[in-house]
Write a structure and sequence with these properties.
It comes from Altererythrobacter arenosus. Keywords: Signal. InterPro entries: WD40/YVTN_repeat-like_dom_sf. This is SMP-30/Gluconolactonase/LRE-like region domain-containing protein. This protein is α+β, with helices and mostly antiparallel strands. The protein has 2 domains: 114 residues; 298 residues, TolB, C-terminal domain (Neuraminidase, 6 Propeller). The strands form 7 sheets. Strands 1-18-17-16-15 form a 5-stranded antiparallel β-sheet, with no helix packed on it. It has a 5-stranded mixed β-sheet with strand order 19-23-22-21-20, with no helix packed on it. Strands 2-28-25-24 form a 4-stranded antiparallel β-sheet, with no helix packed on it. Strand 16 and strand 17 form a beta hairpin. The N terminus is likely disordered.
């Protein structure tokens, strides 16, 4: 059927593990965040989706979901308006949709639809490869430059540390190309990683995020945050609540750690005196929270919800607002996210084309007032993933391999590949 064919063309890129903006003169001081859950993703009717688009005016995913119902209802002008919205924000459909969308809309409006399709993505390849981690390290999720202050006796010191979801360890990489693994006992999937300068500790997130089944030897694997390479003790563990699986993590100036659970939807925190993660935002507010970044005044936490946009949590009141935008941009599809001066640096692997961008924030940090695309559609990418900022540059995983693993096991037709670690200047 025509409608079915159209629906199949509009699948968004999957994550590993999410209307024009009002002008500043008419914009409210804060934008409300609508609570979302699994049921929100099942909304299919036009009225419900249009309300969702109003509630999340910078979500490309919500706009794409409107195309199918508009086609079925014969709402051609609304469909064209949605294509126009996507074009204004640089969305590029794949080769097959490029050919089929004008046909599906109908001969009388085919030319108008064709004019609203960007033929191909502009390639912006601004990064360089600074390390290649061997394929036996498995599914690499994040990377960090080896901190100079890290009190660990390893000679020579490695240049990079990377988290492996499947090997369940931290891999150390040397310029010679060799790597070895730290602390392989008792960890589950290792994903997020952050350096805490106040405590001089490297923290990693451990949890079951790849859907792999636990065997008898795995049932005691840690779910929580783990500090490795400690000089006084081998490790420190901050346990997660039952059923929680932390993935992305960040730390504020007071050494408070924050962690997101992209599966259950919760966001947690732990002060430097805590031994267990505590709920900051319970599941039901976010569908798939991923990247986290602390505001420059230490009073707010930015949370990327993969399918709906970027939220702002007031850390004093826990009130959740939506990061609004004064300019036409797509704010969903964000995996990794970091604050860098007055900008949020984001890896958007859930939109098309995939890109790394910088969103300039308003003085109060509540709105996007500027936008830079730093890298886009790099032909060497598969799926850019997480990383960290060091001396004005983003170090990140360039060829993510989530598509090469099924529940923790290598796919039969897709053997693991070496992982590129790339450096991108943020200037």
């Amino acid at each position: 059927m025509r409608a079915l064919a159209f629906a199949l063309l509009l699948a968004l890129p999957a994550c590993a593990h999410a209307q024009a903006a009002d002008g500043p003169a008419s914009a409210p001081l804060t934008a409300e965040w609508r609570a979302v859950d699994a049921a929100t993703g099942q909304i299919r009717d036009i009225e419900g989706l249009e309300q969702l688009a109003q509630d999340f005016p910078d979500s490309g995913n919500v706009r794409l979901r409107l195309l199918q119902p508009y086609l079925e209802a014969g709402e051609t002008e609304k469909l064209l308006d949605t294509l126009r919205w996507l074009k204004e924000r640089g969305y590029v459909f794949g080769e097959v949709p490029q050919q089929q969308i004008p046909k599906l809309i109908g001969e009388d409006r085919a030319a108008a639809a064709q004019a609203l399709l960007i033929p191909q993505a502009e390639v912006i390849a601004g990064s360089e490869v600074v390390g290649v981690i061997s394929a036996d390290a498995g599914l690499i999720e994040s990377v960090i430059r080896f901190p100079d202050e890290l009190a660990i006796q390893v000679h020579p010191r490695p240049k990079l540390l990377a988290t492996s979801v499947t090997v369940k360890a931290v891999a150390a990489w040397y310029p010679s190309g060799t790597n070895f693994y730290f602390d392989r006992s008792g960890l589950d999937n290792v994903s997020g990683m952050v350096w805490d300068p106040l405590r001089k500790s490297l923290w990693v997130a451990s949890g079951n995020i790849d859907g792999s089944e636990k065997g008898e030897l795995d049932k005691y694997d840690v779910s929580g945050l783990v500090s490795l390479f400690r000089s006084e003790d081998p490790r420190e563990v901050i346990s997660a609540p039952q059923g929680a699986n932390p993935s992305d993590i960040t730390v504020d100036a007071n050494s408070t750690l924050y962690a997101s659970d992209p599966l259950a939807g919760g966001v947690f925190f732990a002060t430097k005196d805590d031994h267990e993660l505590r709920a900051l935002i319970s599941p039901g507010t976010f569908r798939s929270p991923q990247g986290l970044a602390v505001g420059d005044d230490n009073t707010k936490l930015y949370v990327s919800d993969y399918r709906y946009g970027i939220a702002i949590v007031d850390l004093a009141t826990r009130k959740v607002s939506r990061l609004a935008s004064d300019i036409p941009v797509i704010l969903d599809g964000v995996d990794g996210m970091w604050r860098h001066g007055d900008e949020l640096i984001v890896v958007q692997n859930g939109t098309s084309p995939m890109r790394i961008a910088a969103f300039k924030l308003s003085e109060d940090g509540m709105r996007v007032v500027g936008h830079r695309v730093l890298e886009q559609a790099n032909p060497e990418w598969t799926e850019p993933l997480n990383g960290s900022i060091h001396e004005g540059a983003l170090y990140y995983v360039g060829n993510g391999q989530w598509d090469r693993y099924v529940q923790g096991q290598s796919a039969q037709d897709k053997p693991p590949l070496p992982t590129q670690i790339r450096r991108l200047s943020l200037d």
